[in-house]
Amino acid sequence: MMEAFLAIVRRDLHLALRSGGGAGLGVVFFLSVVTIMPFAVGPDLALLARIGPAILWIGALLASLIGLERLFAGDVEDGSLDALCLSPLPLELVAAAKGLAHWLATGLPLVLAAPVLALMLNLDPTAIGAVVLTLLVGTPAVTALGLIGAAFSGAFRRGGLLIAVLVLPLAIPVLIFAVSATSAAITGPVPFGTPFRILMGLTLFSLVLGPVAAAAALRTARA
Amino acid sequence: MGLLNLANPTRFVWLSDRLLPWLSGAAVLVLGAGLVLAFQAPPDYQQGETVRIMYIHVPFAWLSMFGYSLMAVSSLGILAWRHPLADVAHKALAPIGATFTCLCLITGALWGRPMWGTYWVWDARLTSVLVLFLLYLGVMALRAAIDDPNRAGRAAAVLTLVGFINVPIVKFSVDWWNTLHQPASVFRMGGSTIAPSLLWPLLVCATGFTLLFLALHMLAMRTEILRRRVQALEARAAAQAGL
């Protein structure tokens, strides 16, 4: 069972990294979002330092949603999903494996790119550390919740706007606690650990909810 | 057996034909009485006349959660028993629930302006109700995006159950976080903290709005069943014309 799980992760990683639209594009999108922000709010460095963590989180959230559209759509079109359904691996674990591969291909590069982008937003080292830590813990939750939207849009051949409409409300708690953890680290008065622990709890919860609901969504399209 | 019979769409239409006039009449009477009581109730010692917004805001808030909970129950009916009536109930609930949630947000904003000095704050209760509104819209958008009505129903049911996590968050947000929105005052341990002169009109209004909600829901379900029948007849007519 573990072998099948890892085989799906490896296959999806190869597809994501070799097809061009994966990791690189997400980071470029992240960079573009962060770049337009100073034009929108003005190049005031003090202001950017204050809202920088929020800008990074919004950018990462939107970039995480990119590529989700194709996560199941390709498998539905070429029939691999039928093969995956017939495999001894439960559909929930198939969804989890695809989610893990997607996070490794698009989520992790965002976390790695965040420190560089944070420098452009005038964040000090403490703030950078806090943002990167919350992104590392929080983006898996976004990907897991995104699996639900991806399953619906892939199974029913509907576009990316639907994913955003379905996933963004579910991702609000993650965003709230991630940004409040970073602002706790920068200004206090709450210790960083309090919201950060809630964020970790939300991630663990999403990691279970996402694959289970995504599998249910895929089944509704096939039955 | 009696309950199972009711779950038959034909039986439901028959029953709703008989129940709907009574339900609508009761809704009008109780709601009318509630609104009269609301205007006769004494003004609050602190909030003055603006407290009267409570008589419509609080029922909208309760019913927005009630509607979503009903939708979650119908989702179980769709997924576990694949019952056609559960699908009809679910589809009819979403727009009504969304409307009540929207009205809750609007009346809350209008009440917040004189009391808090602002139409909107990003506190836990307001935000979670806004998320509830977005979830209603998401369920409607998903249903509208899928052509096959059976699959649309099941997909919307899955999404409804995922979003149900938000309902306890709405309910307990005022206890878990220190919010600007006041904590629960009517249904709480140790009894209500509202003066009886204000509480009674509120309960009458809430009953009236609940009757209105149920009447609208029954009407919407009836319309949906009839719409599906017309569609089936049209499809059959088209097939025969094709032969």
Tell me the Rg of chain A in angstroms. 18 Å
Name the shape of chain A in a single word.
Answer: elongated
How far apart lie the N and C ends of chain A?
25 Å
Query: Which range best describes the helical content of chain B: under 10%, 10-25%, 25-40%, 40-55%, 55-70% or over 70%?
Result: over 70%
Distance between the termini of chain B: 42 Å
Biggest sheet descriptor of chain A: none
Overall SS class of chain A: mainly alpha
Number of discrete domains of chain A: 1
- Would you report the number of β strands of chain A? 0
SS element count, helices of chain B: 8
| Arithmetic mean pLDDT of chain A | 84
Helix and strand element order of chain A: HHHHHHHHH
Uncertain residue ranges of chain A? none
Integer count of domains of chain B: 1
Strand content of chain A is under 5%
Taking pLDDT < 50 over at least 5 consecutive residues as the criterion, the unreliable ranges of chain B are none
For this structure, the quaternary state is heterodimer
Helix and strand pattern of chain B: HHHHHHHH
Number of separate helices of chain A: 9
Beta-strand content of chain B:
under 5%
Average residue-wise pLDDT of chain B: 85
Walk me through what this model shows.
- The complex is a heterodimer of chains A (223) and B (243).
- Chain A is mainly α and 223 residues long.
- Chain A has helices spanning 2-18, 23-41, 45-65, 69-78, 80-86, 91-120, 125-155, 160-187, 193-222.
- Chain A starts with a helix and ends with a helix.
- The model of chain A has no long low-confidence stretch (mean pLDDT 84).
- Chain A has one domain (2-222).
- By secondary structure, chain B is an all-alpha fold.
- Chain B has one domain (24-39, 49-177, 196-242).
- Chain B is 79% helix and 0% strand.
- Chain B contains eight helices and no strands.
- Chain B has helices spanning 2-6, 9-40, 54-81, 84-116, 124-145, 149-163, 166-176, 196-242.
- In chain B, helix 4 (84-116) packs antiparallel against helix 5 (124-145), helix 5 packs antiparallel against helix 6 (149-163) and helix 5 packs antiparallel against helix 7 (166-176).
- Chain B is globular and about 75 Å long.
- Chain B starts with a helix and ends with a helix.
- The model of chain B has no long low-confidence stretch (mean pLDDT 85).
- Classes of the chains: A mainly alpha (223), B mainly alpha (243).
- Chain A binds chain B through residues 148, 152, 155-156, 158, 162, 165-166, 168-170, 172-173, 176, 209, 213, 216-217, 220-221, 223, and chain B through 79, 127, 131, 134-135, 137-138, 141-142, 145-146, 151, 154-155, 157-159, 161-163, 165-166, 169.
